[in-house]
């Protein structure tokens, strides 16, 4: 009976010890480490087995090569090595050719990318073209003004020549008019013809003047509309340039962020 009581006490103490171990975190850690150690031991054993197998295979190959050397088959081995060397050389040449082709393609793409202007360059080009267009317009207006002045002066010259010829004609007829009645009648008829022609000329000039005035008013309206459109275009261009600069800054920041990451 005492032995049974002792066995019960031992079993009870073992259970209490097991419960204490299960409840203690250090004990759990130790058990986990023991399991890990056992797993590592098994892996080490398996690795040693594989290493022994590989060693045996390699040793068998070494023995085979030694046997071949001993049998005087160095020529065959040299042939195999030469064939392997040729294959390797061909593969190397092919890889070099492929690398050169890729390099040429990369350089071509890089040149194409370099040829593509950035947003800032496009903005500068647009500004320069706008300035050139404005300069050409100013030159065109100046040239048109010079041509108009030349045509006006040429017309004045023709009118003055006609007036001089008319005065000379009147002067020559006036001498005849002082000496005879027929000369006076001829002078009167000539003056009436001159007056009629002058009136017709005046009417044509007035019609042309009205046409020029109407064209001038139309041009003034177009000029005002063009100025308004130019102001609107300048405001849009300024906003576009601001956005281009902002886009360029954001792109640089993004590129720097990619480089740092």
From TrEMBL:
Pfam families: CCDC93_CC. InterPro entries: CCDC93, CCDC93_CC. Signal peptide: none annotated. GO terms for biological process: Golgi to plasma membrane transport. It comes from the Eukaryota. Residues 10-251 form the CCDC93 coiled-coil domain. This is CCDC93 coiled-coil domain-containing protein.
């Amino acid at each position: 009976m005492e032995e049974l009581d002792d066995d019960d006490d031992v079993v009870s103490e073992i259970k209490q010890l097991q419960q204490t171990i299960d409840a203690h975190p250090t004990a759990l850690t130790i058990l986990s480490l023991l399991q890990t150690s056992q797993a590592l031991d098994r892996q080490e054993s398996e690795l040693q087995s594989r290493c022994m197998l590989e060693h045996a295979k390699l040793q068998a190959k070494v023995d085979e090569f030694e046997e071949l050397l001993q049998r005087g088959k160095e020529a065959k081995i040299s042939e195999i090595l030469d064939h392997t060397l040729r294959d390797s050389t061909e593969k190397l040449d092919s890889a070099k050719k492929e690398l050169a082709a890729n390099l040429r393609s990369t350089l071509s793409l890089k040149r194409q990318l370099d040829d593509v202007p950035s947003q800032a360059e496009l903005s500068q080009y647009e500004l320069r073209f706008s300035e050139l267009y404005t300069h050409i317009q100013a030159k065109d207006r100046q040239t048109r003004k010079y041509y108009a002045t030349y045509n006006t002066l040429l017309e004045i010259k023709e009118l003055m020549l006609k007036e001089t010829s008319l005065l000379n004609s009147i002067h020559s007829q006036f001498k005849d008019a002082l000496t005879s009645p027929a000369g006076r009648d001829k002078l009167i008829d000539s003056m009436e013809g001159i007056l009629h022609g002058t009136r017709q000329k005046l009417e044509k000039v007035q019609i042309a003047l009205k046409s020029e005035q109407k064209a001038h008013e139309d041009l003034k309206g177009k000029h005002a509309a063009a100025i308004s459109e130019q102001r609107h275009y300048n405001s849009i261009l300024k906003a576009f340039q601001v956005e281009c600069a902002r886009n360029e800054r954001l792109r640089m920041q993004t590129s720097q962020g990619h480089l740092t990451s």
